[in-house]
Write a structure and sequence with these properties.
Shape: elongated
Mean pLDDT: 65
Helix content: 55-70%
Number of strands: 0
Number of helices: 10
Radius of gyration: 20 Å
Low-confidence stretches: 128-163
Strand content: under 5%
């Protein structure tokens, strides 16, 4: 390539025979992600992120990108509605699109039983928001859907939380779902499982998160945001 005066692209040396090769694989995934995002515009990198299984941060970033795309469609009026009907539709779209980003095998993540369990997790936030804000406010972007990367924080900084009745339960639902999927991803990322998910693994992961301090801390932060915004 030097003779042809072609610049050498970024690369990572990977050998499965070398100790610590898993770290090399993660580095390779990150380098490939950057190249795909730079040279293949549009949704190509998202599809790549969904297909690969080695990097958890890339999985989460794919969720964020899908979420932003969906909520922009809501804002343009292509998905009209308000109140509880819109909220439920948004939550089900969040669920479907987020699940797709992780490339799990099996259908248990899309069952009505699991969706109902996830809905039950956000009841405390939904009820709290109903007490402190009017449900009839104009629809505004649910801006803090995941809040896990710089790209998403940039979007958050330019958008106002005007309809907390819709946006904060969506925030809680999505963060809860990502937490559960993150733990499930670690659990099933084994050669014997290969991201195959059964009801038993899902139930164990869900119950662990339901009892965790992480869930309560997340919901407390969301409710405190509601209190602060409602003062103005």
């Amino acid at each position: 390539m030097k003779r042809l005066n072609i610049p050498m692209p970024d690369y990572v040396k990977v050998s499965v025979f070398r100790p610590g090769y898993k770290e090399d694989v993660s580095a390779l995934v990150e380098v490939t992600r950057d190249i795909v995002k730079e040279r293949l515009k549009g949704d190509a990198w998202i599809m790549w992120a969904i297909a690969q299984r080695a990097s958890l941060p890339v999985k989460i970033e794919a969720c964020i990108t899908k979420g932003i795309s969906y909520y922009r469609r809501v804002l343009t009026g292509t998905m009209p509605g308000f109140g509880r009907i819109l909220l439920h539709r948004c939550l089900m779209e969040v669920h479907k699109d987020t699940i797709k980003c992780w490339n799990f095998k099996g259908e248990v993540l899309n069952t009505e039983e699991f969706k109902q369990l996830m809905l039950n997790l956000v009841q405390d936030v939904s009820q709290f928001v109903s007490l402190v804000t009017a449900a009839s406010a104009p629809i505004a972007p649910p801006v803090a859907i995941l809040g896990l990367t710089y790209i998403f924080l940039q979007w958050l900084s330019t958008t106002a939380l005007e309809n907390m009745y819709v946006s904060l339960p969506i925030l809680a639902y999505t963060m809860d779902l990502v937490h559960v999927l993150r733990e499930l991803f670690d659990f099933t990322l084994k050669p014997t499982l290969a991201l195959t998910t059964t009801g038993e693994e899902l139930r164990e992961t869900f119950e662990a998160y339901e009892r965790s301090s992480s869930r309560q801390r997340t919901h407390n932060i969301i409710c405190s945001k509601c209190r602060r915004v409602n003062k103005f």
